[in-house]
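Hi there, hope your week has been kind to you so far. Thanks so much in advance, here it is.
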Amino acid sequence: MSKPLAFRMRPMTIDEIVGQQHLVGPGKIIRRMVEAKMLSSMILYGPPGIGKTSIASAIAGSTQYAFRMLNAATDSKKDLQIVVEEAKMSGTVILLLDEVHRLDKPKQDFLLPHLESGRVVMIGATTENPYITINPAVRSRTQIFELKPLSVEDIQLALTRALNDKERGLGNYSVSLSDTALLHLSRATNGDLRSALNGLELAVKSTKPNEDGQIPITLDVIEECVQRKALTHDKNGDAHYDVISALQKSIRGSDVNAALHYLGRLIEAGDLPIISRRLMVIAYEDIGLANPGAASRTVTAVQAAERLGFPEARIPLANAVVDLCLSPKSNSSYAAVDAALTDIRSGISGDVPDHLKDAHYSDAKKLGRGITYQYPHDYPDAWVAQQYLPNALLNAHYYEPKHTGKYEDTLAKQYDKLEHLKRQRKNN
């Protein structure tokens, strides 16, 4: 049985890696390691299918070092010993250790000295946060790199390569892939390149050629092969963004039924990352200080949804949507920071007042740094009248409180009180 397309298309050099340019792009850390042949053990973490194994394979291919793959949960200490013996005989071995967060203490104690010597370069792969799940002894001997989700463009690039590659890919098949099918395949797999490639291979190998000898891969074929319905059959895929926009505007407008309808469309399309990101944006952009608790509950609901996956993920997502819809709304903090950014981008900023500048280094006082600073905690109510804004922005007002929720109403009263005190000081 032939190996899956995703396996065959695994990058052989660092130049073939799709995405992760913050790590493997020109001048970036992993590329520098490879080019200088100064590799150190590392942990790569991020969602499935975004390139952890690919980066390890590409590093090995670019450096010509031996490459071995083990799983920390299922492979034994004896398997690690075999890799170490190989490294002793033939030189450096790159070891991809999948599920590195499952590395138990006996395996860890055996492996650590060999990581320190550099004989084994371990590339640990995990979907878990290594700062929480990985033993400090392992973390201290590795560099930790977070991999970013692949963009739609990244996945389309990889799919196109696979279609054109005659040695490892599907280049020997005469395939006609429609634009809508390519777009849906790159979106429906939610950044998982492995799933996208395997979906493409299934589509190509299970579709009969037409009269012209071409294998027509249509949107319907891709929907069946990845088991995800497209939001629409429109040519440019604009409805994908239209539904996301409609979800946010329905929540902003407090129409709970409309919001649940658009949530349902996104659930049916399997767009969990899109839903999660959009709900967290809405919680802070549209609800904001009117109900900060709703933002916290939204984050918790999103985390639960991501752990559960579909179909159960729909339950916490629906909770969040109803909560956000029926919550009081405020965009005051969002509008305030944008107003501040407008001034900054227009060149209106000015120098930080001397009494606010850092005064912890030697000779700071000679430069007049921090001399007249008044420590608020030394005064009643932890407040003292002193200048904080630069001279160029002395009368700037960005924050305009709203009274749509109890929490921001309390903030508004405090804000008005402080502004009154400032005016009193200015007039005296």
